Amino acid sequence: MQTHQHWQDIPATARGASVAMGNFDGVHRGHQRVIELARKDKAPLGIVCFEPHPREYFAPDSAPFRLMSAETRANRLARIGVEHLYQLPFGQDLSSLSAEAFARDVLAQGLGVRHVVVGADFCFGKGREGTATDLVQLGQSYGFEVTVAPLLAEGDRVFSSTAIRQALSDGLCQEAADMLGHWHRIDGAVLHGEKRGRTLGYPTANMSISGLHPPRFGVYAVLVDVLDGPHRGAYQGVASMGVRPMFGQNLPNLETFIFDFSGDLYGSRLSVALVKHLRDEMRFDSLDALITQMDADSARTRAILSAL
Length: 308
Description:
The protein is α/β, with parallel strands linked by helices. The chain has two domains: about 150 residues, HUPs (Rossmann fold), CATH 3.40.50.620; about 120 residues, Elongation Factor Tu (Ef-tu), domain 3 (Beta Barrel). A six-stranded parallel beta sheet has the order 1-4-3-2-5-8, with helices on both faces. A hairpin with a 6-residue loop joins strand 13 and strand 14. The protein is elongated and about 70 Å long.
């Protein structure tokens, strides 16, 4: 997949694409429906999205809400066959464009798109003045086809990033996965921690969750992909999400113990899928009690993952 960081100076090979447009936070099943509608014979498949997320730009002090980092989103889009990722820088220049200027200058002249698919609730242009219906009309004026995808729902449940965030806040991994179409994953580099886990017999790979919507704190059964380095591959494990209440005040992070693994992962990039929330964070009376609980968590996790 080729990534393009601006709508200017797009190479000829990246023009003429059929694109799905939106933020695609989570790349959930509703997003996947939009992307599928953008698949056209003899046209490259592209995604037009925005970085940072417009909500981060307009409300920089708001609580973290993203389901995916830009890197995780790109990894997921590459897996489903996207050829071109137009990751447009969202700032003063882009946010000040009118709906018509965006359609003309960015989509038609800049990216040279052939076909655009958006969800029915898509808005664009300064002050979110443009609607999906407006885009259809602008496409007719500036030479690209527009398809408006209806919102995907099952019964009275609409598939949305908001609903997925709520499921994760409640620790409902399977419910989130049902809406996502895949396990919710946290990707990132393995960071140096305080290395307490190795003294307890549970060495962990520590990852930051900064900037992401925090799932319910506690212990999870997880699937782990090591994305690079000599230990690249798929593993199983048990992870702790939270602030480690046994050890004072700490920033929230994700600590993963990989089953039957021996090696150095510092600096490697991991993708950790949350499969089952086992329990909430707890404070124990002693390290021995903590180790006993970790043994029980590991045994339960092995049973859960063996049944997948």
